[in-house]
Amino acid sequence: MRRGKLRRTLNHLSGRSLGKTARKQRERSMVRVMAIAGRVLGLAAALLVIVSFSVQAWRVGSANYNLHREIDQVEDQNRQLSSDTVKLREDIILSRNPEYLVPLIHEQLGLTKPREVFIEVAPQAQK
Question: For 108, which DSSP code?
């Protein structure tokens, strides 16, 4: 680093080495630059806030959609389980009825009562 370079740079930036009109012109341009920089910074901050809110709204909406889909699936599963429960209760009630069980035993297990002959007729083959 050259000796005195920092001092010369500070003097140059502060406008000490310039004349009165050049200094005022530099101050006006610095004020304009600072105003523009302030506006740009304000716009960037506003844009950042808007983007942040948009991203959060998207995440919440996506999570909400997924939850509703999951709720629909669980409700369908509950309906299916309820209908299965009703069918199983009917099967339990029917399993206590001998009039229902005897044909079922004959058809599925092929069992017969003593001195009873079980004849199974095959359907005719179609031509």
Answer: I
